[in-house]
Write a structure and sequence with these properties.
Elements: H1 2-20, H2 23-46, H3 56-74, H4 85-102, E1 119-120, E2 126-127, H5 130-150, H6 154-175, E3 183-185, E4 188-189, H7 190-211
Antiparallel strand pairs: 1-2, 3-4
């Protein structure tokens, strides 16, 4: 589907990345790897567990920091992320089902609940299926995004990546209250702080775009 959307509406967005050269991809991948494994592992440590962790929101934050630094170095202005919107949203929609079926081993399960749709992941405790909450939220965003891309909505074509970051971070911030992770400031865990930073980033970038 991602290839279809690219051929259908996102070729122009892809040209900006092509002109940035291969180091753009290197920065993106390096930032995503450092952020993903770094944040995931740190969150495990803060939650009293040892091991190597992975985090989607950490990978997103790391990739954004690396690419923004690269763009500043190369003098590239404006958003280059629209091309990644369908792919990222789809990966979350599908990937969170994988997390759901992985059960307790994936460390993405929610806190105990008495709600009817709670799920027992194998330890006899009915928990919030936060993986599915996230999948559904991003599926809604993806459907809206595809409609706006299809219509070549000017605001979305200019700010689509920032809207993706805003939507993902905002919904993820909510679901973090339903996860048994160690906190770092009051009721907030590491991922709360990352999500808050991503929300601020996306709002600032859209505001800067309007002002330019």
């Amino acid at each position: 589907m991602t290839l279809f959307v690219y051929q259908w509406r996102l070729k122009e967005a892809g040209k900006k990345i092509d002109s940035a050269g291969p180091l753009y991809a290197v920065a993106l991948l390096a930032g995503a790897a450092i952020g993903g494994f770094g944040a995931g592992t740190l969150n495990l440590f803060l939650s009293g567990q040892m091991g190597i962790g992975r985090s989607i929101v950490g990978a997103l934050a790391g990739a954004i920091i690396a690419v923004e630094l690269f763009k500043r170095w190369r003098g590239i202005s404006g958003s280059t992320g629209l091309i990644f919107v369908p792919a990222f949203a789809t990966s979350v929609v599908v990937g969170r089902w994988g997390c759901y079926f992985a059960g307790l081993a994936d460390d993405t399960y929610g806190t105990p609940t008495t709600l009817a749709w709670g799920h027992d992941f194998g330890d006899g405790v009915t928990r919030h299926p936060v993986q599915l909450y996230e999948s559904i939220a991003m599926a809604v965003f993806l459907m809206v995004a595809l409609v706006l891309i299809g219509r070549r909505n000017a605001f979305f074509m200019r700010n689509g990546f920032y809207l993706l970051v805003l939507t993902y971070a905002a919904q993820r911030f909510l679901w973090e209250f339903l996860k048994p992770y160690g906190t770092v400031a009051g009721p907030f865990n590491l991922f709360h702080l990352l999500c808050a930073g991503l929300v601020i980033y996306s709002l600032l970038m859209m505001a800067r775009g309007r002002a330019s």
